[in-house]
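Structure first, sequence second, as always.
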């Protein structure tokens, strides 16, 4: 028995960016088995979902998240840059327990799914306790336990446990990565060890890079010309390292970056909120894989990846002083297939093609913000929002149906989450 999304408008985001005005998508198990003419793919006993008034897109891919900090939302707005570079400490964070973090994960993953996000690249400490909650939500994820020199060798133990538990094969719905925190909080020795273990285990590496000026100053004090040189010295300036933020590079470093092929996790809202800065997206896009991330809720504070795409386009146009750059098509790809390339999973997901995993979003075309239907891709970037999301599927499982979670109850999650960590 298969599921057929019938008579849908489809943004395939394949190599030719084909838009199909009406098509059936047949999903067998976790895989897109076929895409065909409308009304032709359903067989007896299939579950047919009418999509004649809907737009189907690949699932949105959020390449930089910290799901376990969802309850920090609203705790630190409008702070000076120094507040963050002093260690990203959130006022009152000590009152939250690991159990609170785990509970926060379920709420965050539910929110991601309701927003049309089908895959996250998530990282934080205590990942051995957090990752099972991510797994239970049904979302696709690559998880990493944050490594810091200050936490010592025990950190490797936890990282190893996560690698052991989930493996590094992205064909697993949840797989593990190696996640050193940043260039200043990780010594050169730790970064070299990360490169060595990544090579040994086949894990992808996720790291914050050049997020603030003090970080780059510390890297220079260690004798490196800048952030890129620091990555190079550690053996991490490769296509296997995902660098988040990348704000404080020199012009020469930005020019040299694409030749290393280091994928970038671009988090425009977080960057603008806490650093009032954005990277030169128009200069980098198309030359190196770049995906979009919502980062953590204290610096964003939203988990709306569509808003992130719109902001990336607009802020990027401003940075380039050119309204022609960062086209709708490029932004649609950033939300989906380019995000998958960043995570090294583009052969599995990120576009709607036979043989790929069924990670899909169905947007309600009867929402006013989805009309008129002159250009569905344009609507996706510039006017749709999470309220337009109708159904969400990951690995062939419907996790959101008619705007409601199928594995969780949104109201219950919100109730349990609303006053989490509130001082008594
Ligand atoms: Zn981050």
């Amino acid at each position: 028995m298969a599921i057929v999304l019938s008579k849908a408008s489809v943004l395939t985001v394949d190599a030719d960016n084909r838009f199909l005005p009406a098509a059936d998508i047949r999903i067998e198990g976790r895989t897109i088995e076929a895409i065909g003419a409308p009304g032709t793919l359903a067989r007896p006993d299939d579950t047919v979902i009418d999509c004649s008034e809907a737009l189907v897109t690949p699932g949105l891919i959020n390449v930089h998240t910290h799901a376990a900090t969802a309850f920090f939302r609203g705790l630190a707005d409008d702070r000076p840059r120094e507040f963050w570079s002093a260690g990203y400490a959130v006022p009152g964070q000590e009152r939250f327990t690991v159990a609170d973090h785990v509970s926060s994960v379920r709420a965050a993953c539910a929110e991601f799914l309701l927003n049309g996000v089908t895959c996250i690249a998530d990282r934080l400490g205590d990942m051995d306790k957090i990752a099972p909650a991510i797994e239970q939500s049904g979302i696709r994820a690559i998880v990493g336990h944050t490594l810091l020199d200050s936490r010592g060798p025990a950190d490797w133990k936890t990282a190893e446990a996560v690698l052991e538990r989930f493996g590094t094969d992205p064909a697993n719905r949840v797989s593990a990565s190696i996640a050193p925190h940043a260039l200043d909080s990780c010594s050169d020795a730790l970064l070299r060890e990360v490169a060595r273990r990544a090579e040994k285990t086949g894990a992808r590496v996720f790291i914050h890079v050049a997020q603030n000026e003090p970080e780059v100053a510390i890297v220079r004090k260690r004798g490196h010309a800048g952030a890129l040189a620091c990555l190079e010295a550690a053996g991490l300036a490769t296509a296997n390292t995902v660098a988040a933020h990348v704000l404080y590079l020199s012009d020469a470093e930005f020019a040299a970056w694409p030749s290393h092929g280091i994928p970038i996790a671009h988090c425009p809202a977080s960057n603008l909120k806490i650093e009032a800065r954005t990277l030169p997206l128009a200069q980098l896009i198309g030359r190196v894989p770049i995906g979009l991330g919502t980062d953590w809720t204290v610096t964003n504070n939203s988990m709306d990846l569509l808003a992130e795409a719109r902001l990336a386009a607009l802020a990027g146009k401003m940075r380039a002083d050119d309204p022609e750059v960062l086209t709708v098509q490029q932004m649609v790809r950033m939300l989906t297939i380019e995000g998958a390339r960043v995570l090294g999973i583009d052969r599995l997901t990120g576009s709607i093609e036979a043989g790929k995993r069924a990670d899909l979003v169905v947007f309600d075309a009867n929402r006013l913000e989805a009309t008129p239907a002159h250009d569905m891709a344009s609507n996706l970037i510039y006017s749709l929002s999470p309220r337009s999301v109708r159904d969400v599927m990951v690995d062939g499982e419907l996790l959101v149906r008619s705007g409601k979670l199928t594995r969780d109850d949104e109201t219950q999650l919100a109730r349990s989450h609303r006053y989490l960590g509130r001082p008594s």
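Margin note: The longest strand covers residues 19-28.
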